[in-house]
Design brief:
3% of the residues lie in helices and 43% in strands. The relative contact order is 0.17. By secondary structure, it is mainly beta. It has two helices and 27 strands. The chain has one domain: Beta-galactosidase, Chain A, domain 5, CATH 2.70.98.10. The longest helix has 7 residues, at 310-316. It has helices spanning 74-77, 310-316, and strands at residues 8-14, 17-23, 27-32, 38-44, 49-50, 85-87, 95-97, 100-102, 114-120, 124-132, 138-147, 152-161, 167-169, 172-174, 176-178, 187-189, 195-198, 217-218, 221-223, 229-231, 243-248, 253-259, 263-269, 275-281, 296-302, 320-322, 327-338. The strands form seven sheets. An eight-stranded antiparallel sheet has the order 9-10-11-12-27-23-22-16, with no helix packed on it. Strands 15-25-24-21-17-18 form a six-stranded antiparallel sheet, with no helix packed on it.
Length: 339
């Protein structure tokens, strides 16, 4: 009998793709093993608030995409439904590493993952997702866990070098937020002592940016591109400049909070992912791929920087190194904290 109380799970089909729903008294979380294991719903049930951003183009099965010119950026963006992705082994722009051509944000976000139930009790439910990369010899697993009575999703991930050759990778959690949770004036809180490293160039098509190049600066008040000062802890109005900055200086445990009508907190192992990418796309980009329709903020724990791809991270010394047959393990957690 399917349980309708406490922690419970069910397998569903979402827009033609395999999906799994983990639910308890306070949260409903939907992940899509059929497309990268993406989390496409993180619904706080008492307030009917979904925290993840959902792209206007919706969820698309990558296997159904047969039109358009070959493009290492479009491979990710054309199938980007919003949601939360695991990014591995390449972060940001397309890159070439040891003869392997890697598309934007790597391989695993566009691949189908296997799904196995590892706990199905009233007290907790959990599923294990797994995938092997195709361009590089890696194996990844992630366990999504939801416990009864909590408003928190717990994630345990692992990345294994499945070869006798030392390798590099970029590893990140592509966590992006949107309406109804995200709104102008919402506040972002970080630990004391965090530094802000601006991206090397503007990311918007109009050349505008929010933060002046240079740095590093101290969070949250930083020089603005217009010569004034901007407070990065405040979410901006629609139409504010697109930008990306890199935050670093976390202790062993990284954390941040976003507070609006409700609040949420993310914690992660900052010894493995020492950077936090802060991506702002608030409607200023009116060309491909956003067309002025995006209002989203990404706060993405990452192993490396900048968004120029794996080869650049290897060159600047921030790439993750995995020895022969080595496994790296990561734990992170996202929780609604203000209700």
């Amino acid at each position: 009998m399917r349980r309708n109380w406490g922690a419970r799970l069910r397998h569903v089909t979402l827009d033609g793709l395999r999906a799994v729903v983990l639910e308890n008294e306070r949260l409903r979380v939907t992940a899509v093993p059929g497309k990268g294991g993406d989390v496409v719903e993180f619904l706080h049930k008492p307030t009917d608030t979904d925290l993840v951003w959902l792209s206007p183009q919706g969820l698309r099965d990558p296997r159904d995409h047969l039109q358009g010119a070959a493009d290492d950026v479009a491979q990710f963006v054309d199938h980007y439904e919003g949601g939360w992705q695991e990014v591995f082994p390449n972060g940001g722009a397309p890159s070439e590493y040891r003869g392997a051509r890697l598309a934007q944000h790597g391989e695993v976000a566009g691949l189908p993952w296997s799904c196995e139930v590892v706990a199905d009790r009233e007290e907790e439910v959990a599923v294990r997702l797994a995938v092997r990369t195709r361009r590089l010899p890696y194996r990844m697993e992630r366990v999504l866990r939801l416990r009864s009575g909590t408003a928190a999703l717990e994630v345990e991930s692992s990345a294994t070098n499945d070869s006798p050759v030392p390798l590099h990778a970029m590893w990140g959690q592509h966590l992006v937020y949107g309406r109804p949770f995200l709104r102008p004036g919402a506040r972002i809180r970080l630990p004391e002592g965090v530094r802000v490293i601006p991206h090397g160039s503007a990311i918007g098509p109009d050349g505008r940016r929010r933060v002046r190049p240079g740095g590093p600066w101290w969070w949250p008040l930083v020089p603005a591109a217009d010569g004034a000062e901007t407070d990065l802890s405040v979410v901006q109005e629609p139409g504010a400049p697109s930008d990306i900055v890199y935050l670093t200086g976390f202790g062993p445990e990284g954390w941040y909070e976003i507070s609006g009508d409700i609040g949420m907190r993310v914690t992660w192992d900052a010894t493995l992912l020492p950077y936090l990418w802060m991506w702002q796309e608030l409607g200023a980009s009116t060309g491909y791929p956003w067309w002025g329709r995006a209002y989203t903020l990404g706060l993405e724990p990452f192993s490396s920087m900048p968004t120029d791809g794996l080869a650049a991270a290897v060159a600047n010394g921030t790439a993750l190194a995995l020895g022969p047959h080595e496994t790296k393990r990561l734990r992170w957690r996202v929780e609604v904290v203000h209700q």
